[in-house]
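Protein Record: Sequence and Backbone Structure Tokens
======================================================
Tokens: labelled as protein backbone structure tokens, with as many entries as the chain has residues.
Question of interest: how does this chain fold, as expressed in backbone structure tokens?

___
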Amino acid sequence: MRQFTIILLLLVCSGAALRAQINTGRIPTGAGGGNSRMQRDTTKHDHEPDTLTLRFRYLDEPTDFMLDSSIIDFNLNYLEVPANYLTLGNNGSAARNIIFSPRMLPGFDPGFHAFDVYGFNHQNARFYNTNRPYSELGYLIGSKQEQMINLMHTQNRGEKFNFSFAYRKINSQGYYRNQSTNHDNYKVTANYNSQNKRYHILMSYYLNKINGGENGGITDTAELKNPDNTQLRLIPTNLGGSTATSSSIFNSNIPVKNSYQEASFLFRHQYDWGKGDTIHINDTTDVYKFDPVFRVQHTFTYTQNTYEFIDRNPDTTFYQNHYGLIFDPPASSGFEDTVLTRHQWRILSNDLSFIQFPIRGNMAHFIKVGGGFDNIIGEFIDNTSITFQNLRIHGEYRNKTKNQKWDLSAKGEFYLLGENAGDYSVSASLRRYLNRTLGTITLMGANVNREPSYVYRFFATDHGQVYRNPTIQKENVTQLQVRSDNPKLKYNIVGNYYLFNKYTYFSSYSQSNQFTGLFNLLQIVGQKRFDVKSFTIFADLAFQQLAGSAPIQLPTFWGRVRAGYNARLFKNLNLFTGLEGKYNTPYYTDDYSPMLGQFTYQDSIQRKVYPDLAAFVHFRIKSFTAYVRAENLNTFLWDQNFFAPLYPSNDFSLRVGLRWWFIN
């Protein structure tokens, strides 16, 4: 461990020196701390010639955003996995949000979401506009051969075309047997503006290759205190047997795994009618400005997803007890059977929309109506298949005023025909900036009626076992939200009220169920920053309270506190160093079904909860950032926490994450 620490510190120092010599450009950065979210771009853009001007947008969002260079939140800014997500103990393993967040999207959904937090999608795709080529390089190394690589590049080719690509690699052997993960994520975006600024193209492509090792949890929690188990890897697990897992950054042999491959291509093009003017800047520069009045927009999307579970040397007793699988011939005969499952989906979608902009020059004030047609094909490992279509209509009204004080949004979507006929979603929000002292208040309401995800209705295996639940009906979720954001007083707080009807869940490893009654959930989530000279405390808190009997288990309180020295030193050094702690009240944590890749309800095992502690040093020197973290310090003081009934937390670990920004 001593040599490991010395090498990592040398890497940090040498990387900082090298980066300071290479990069002489500047990027828009904040102070030593700052908000960990993307910053909205509401400023003018008059920059020196050698300064980077980089903005980006998301699909269907007319607001520009800027990069966030904060070093405060390692989870959100670097790992891109929020701190309120619980994994099964390894970077890249199945994860869920401890702050309950129901799925509120109508239409077809396969239902495999345990690894969503690690993947790319069209909703988080960024469409950039930059005056200079920009690149990012990130590398993380941690205990037990944990490694993560992040690459990103974007540049404009002339004034009309921009492209970007990103790559993320997660490879981690984990502390326990048969826990390895190996993910590869790719993302490409492009946007084009014609010379007369009437025709636009947006293109997004992503590919997620997810390989999550599944060990079924440890066989006996008493093994954690067995003195013969000098390493956690010696503790027997339910799946994978004693097979050794070989792992390297580009090659992993995972004996039991969920292997997901998600690929999707989106092509959107639009044509505008409106008014254009040539604006005279100076004696040599004229700029053509076009303000659309009416737009026709077509979006084509093709998605192909494959969800597989693979166990080539199964423990037949485990599968018989938890899934009712029958092995023929039996394992005692010496015949090595396998357990394979596969759901493959192909979705082709076309959407046509008409958009009007009532106020010239305000792209955030519009009325949109349109419709879409989806063709969906599913194929399963038992050689069955299904084909169906959906026809839907949608509309939206958005009015974000030019003075940035009001932001009104109302939208709806309704499925007229097809497999999901009757699904709908309606929502409305009103956002008002009051003043610098009171900040911004947002009111929001939404109601969604949806067919439960397909995995709740049908799941097939290669052993002839098919799990069906044809009695499931549409579920309905209502959400009311009040939000307050106050940059001056450095806090934000969100209050949610949810009302559920016919909530769908997994009641066991293989059986889905539906709660036919009504129940509600009150949820309050907030963040506050305290500054005392050069010391800063960030407090994240959540309160959750269910009313009525419900098949959901949640901690009443969850909290995270980061406290430390936060300052800018020697002009270019931004430093944040201190301690981080997380804690939640005891509750019946969800169990996990490896073969289905689903978190399941359980109310029989509740364990004591101890605080999770970490020490950290985060710093940035110009465009080089380093995160040095000692995590799971609590294992020196208390027993291990459990992420699920048979999934304990790790031992002490050391992580170092590095990030460079390059401006060409």
Q: What stands out?
A: The radius of gyration is 26 Å. The longest helix spans residues 2-22. DSSP finds three helices and 36 strands in the chain. The mean pLDDT is 89.
